[in-house]
């Protein structure tokens, strides 16, 4: 993996690109999911990947990265979330 250097509050931290990209993707997905009810998520699964890609692209571009392909499979919603 290629390490990158990130300044956080004046402290320089060496991070792995995969970890940072993963965190950015997770954050973008949480934002999209948080805008919908549990009942709406399965109904809109078809467009979820497109919205996720759209949300994550600017942050990843800031690292010089892009998304070549993104798909959503095996979507499951916990019973406790639906209750």
Secondary-structure map with pairings?
Layout: E1 3-8, E2 11-16, H1 17-34, H2 40-43, H3 45-61, H4 79-82
Antiparallel strand pairs: 1-2
Helix pairs in contact: 1-3
Helix/sheet category:
alpha+beta
Q: State the distance separating the first and last CA atoms.
A: 42 Å
How many domains in all?
A: 1
Helical content (DSSP H or I, runs of 4+): 40-55%
Bin the strand percentage. Answer: 5-15%
Largest β-sheet summary = 2 strands, antiparallel
| Lateral arrangement of strands in the main beta sheet | 1-2
Give the overall shape. Answer: elongated
- Give the overall average pLDDT: 78
Low-confidence stretches are: none
- The Cα radius of gyration reads 15 Å
Helix and strand run: EEHHHH
Number of helices: 4
Instruction: Give the total of beta strands.
Output: 2
Explain what this protein looks like in three dimensions.
With 83 residues, this protein is of the alpha+beta class. The protein has one domain (3-82). The chain has four helices and two strands. The chain has a two-stranded antiparallel ribbon with strand order 1-2. A hairpin with a 2-residue loop joins β1 and β2. The protein is elongated and about 45 Å long. It starts with a strand and ends with a helix. The relative contact order is 0.15.
């Amino acid at each position: 993996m290629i390490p990158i250097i990130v300044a956080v509050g004046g402290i320089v931290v060496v991070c792995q690109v995969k970890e940072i990209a993963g965190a950015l993707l997770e954050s973008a997905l949480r934002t999209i999911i948080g805008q919908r009810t549990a009942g709406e998520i399965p109904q809109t699964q078809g467009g979820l990947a497109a919205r996720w890609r759209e949300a994550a692209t600017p942050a990843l571009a800031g690292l010089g990265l892009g998304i070549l392909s993104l798909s959503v499979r095996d979507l499951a919603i916990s019973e406790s979330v639906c209750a």
